[in-house]
Design brief:
Elements lengths: L1 H25 L14 H24 L9 H29 L4 H20 L7 H31 L7 H22 L6 E2 L4 E2 H19 L2 H57 L4 H28 L7 E3 L1 H12 L7 E6 L5 E3 L1 H17 L6 E9 L2 E8 L6 H4 L19 H11 L3 E7 L3 E9 L7
Parallel strand pairs: 4-6
Antiparallel strand pairs: 1-2, 3-5, 6-7, 7-9, 8-9
Helix pairs in contact: 1-2, 1-7, 2-3, 3-4, 3-5, 4-5, 5-6, 6-7, 8-9, 9-10, 10-11, 11-13
Length: about 475
């Protein structure tokens, strides 16, 4: 009875390991993956499923062989062999496809691999006795393992090992797991393809079936961990798209500012042009040096104004990373006001800027935060309104408050406004990334955003910064 229980558990768990392997692979959604091996993993999954049923069918035959009066019927034997041949056939095809992925220029030569081994197996069958005796079926079983099982596991295992080197840039852990799966798959191929079933392994003094089960379990472990690379790839893709959307959000903001900036720069340049013309006349018609001096002062003043506006715009538009530096939050707000240009003239803007300690920050990133918040406040007041910007010190924090008299935020939306892609604006009016980008920037500065809003009464956005914190991105 203990032997029967041991055999039952061995083959049951052995089959369950391969079945779990198949489930792990086929339940993984790889349709959006850019990894070249993803499109062929289903072949490995089919191998695992069919191999699991082969082990369970063999278990069934072991426990019911005495139920048949004249031994196991040939149909049952052929069914077992068909399952074994099919499983290793799928594995061989998978290994060939992996090598085609690694060496795309060798496709036609690699296609000869399965044909070669199938031909060798067929030739071995020709010289085998044709009587349907137990020894005949054992011979076929062993030849399938020799000429199909071992080459299939060897090719697939080596394919995993070589392919692991091509994905190290995505995930070093995923690469190691693919390599581990390949190593144990090769070991499984040796045990299942070169060592006859029923053999007691020397030194270990265990049946080869148990060793096969251990290696199969190791393959399952590494495969399940290796499949996590698709999650890593998906996260990298999401991060890349968020980064792209963040750039789009910045371009959207720049587009809204473009008209005001152009108008703001055009005014001083027009003034410069006018003063140049007047200066020419003064130099020709006047002997009084005071007139040219006034013209030069006006030209210099307006050029400085245009240069300052252009510098603020370039600083905001730049994607170059900067180091954290001591920053006066009031200077950041002044720069943001310059970026708003003529658009600010439609609102009653009050600045209560108190003297506050410097904070450690990247100034142009904070300008992006203030610009997003202020533009959102203006969008909430389409007919114009009052906007109040206050800075103050509160304990070991510097607080900047932007208060508008707009339509406010619904309580149902208040907890969602910082979520990526959430927006209450019409389609085409915003991506829903503005405040979420602000939140990420504030977090990188060790700060936070707090919202206080009442429907039809306005919103206050508090930007809270720590004093004297040094950060590095």
């Amino acid at each position: 009875m203990p032997d029967h229980l041991y055999t039952y558990l061995l083959y049951l768990i052995y089959g369950m390991v391969f079945f779990a392997m198949g489930v792990a692979i086929t339940s993984r959604d790889t349709r959006t993956s850019n990894l070249s091996v993803a499109r062929w993993l289903w072949l490995f999954g089919l191998f695992a499923y069919v191999h699991a049923f082969n082990e369970w069918f063999e278990l069934f035959l072991i426990f019911h062989e005495h139920s048949f009066p004249a031994g196991i019927p040939p149909l049952a034997e052929f069914t077992k062999l068909a399952l074994l041949f099919s499983s290793f056939g799928f594995l061989l095809l998978f290994g060939m496809k992996v090598f085609c992925v690694i060496f795309p220029g060798k496709y036609h030569q690699l296609c000869l691999i399965p044909l070669f081994f199938v031909s060798i197996w067929l030739l071995s069958m020709i010289v085998t006795q044709s009587e349907w005796t137990p020894s005949f079926f054992r011979a076929i079983d062993f030849r399938i393992r020799n000429f199909m099982g071992f080459p299939a596991a060897l090719i697939s295992g080596l394919g995993f090992i070589i392919y692991s080197g091509t994905i190290r840039h995505i995930s070093d852990k995923g690469s190691r797991n693919f390599s581990g799966a390949g190593f144990f798959l090769v070991g499984y191929g040796v045990l299942t393809g070169l060592v006859p079933s029923g053999t007691i392994l020397p030194l270990l003094d265990i049946p080869v079936e148990l060793a096969r089960g251990v290696f199969a379990f190791a393959v399952l472990h590494f495969i399940m961990n290796a499949l996590n690379i698709f999650d890593v790839e998906r996260n990298l893709l999401i991060e890349e798209r968020l980064h792209r959307f963040a750039k789009s959000e910045k371009l959207h903001s720049l587009g809204k500012l473009a008209f005001g900036i152009a108008h703001e720069i055009n005014n001083p340049l027009t003034n410069v042009s006018l003063n140049v013309e007047l200066l020419k006349k003064d130099l020709v018609n006047s002997n009084n040096p005071a007139f040219p001096a006034k013209r030069f002062d006006a030209i210099e003043r307006n050029l400085d104004r245009a240069t300052k506006i252009a510098r603020e715009l370039l600083s905001f538009a730049s994607q170059n990373e900067s180091n954290f530096q001591a920053t006066d939050i009031n200077d950041v707000i002044a720069g943001t006001m310059d970026l708003l240009g003529a658009r600010r003239n439609a609102y009653r803007i009050t600045r209560n800027l108190n003297e506050v300690p410097s904070i450690s920050a990247i100034p142009w990133k904070l300008e992006e935060v203030f610009l997003n918040v202020i533009i959102n406040a203006m969008d909430a007041m389409p007919e114009g309104g009052a906007l109040t910007i206050t800075t103050k010190r509160k304990g070991d924090k510097v607080v900047a408050e932007i208060t508008d008299t707009g339509h406010g935020i619904s309580p149902n939306h208040l907890d969602k406004v910082l979520d990526p892609f959430f927006t209450t604006k019409e389609v085409g009016k915003g991506t829903g990334l503005g405040l979420s980008i602000c939140f990420a920037i504030m977090e990188s500065h060790g700060g936070k955003i707090e919202l206080d809003s009442h429907v039809d009464k306005g919103t206050t956005v508090s930007l809270i910064f720590p004093i004297g914190v040094q950060n590095n991105e």
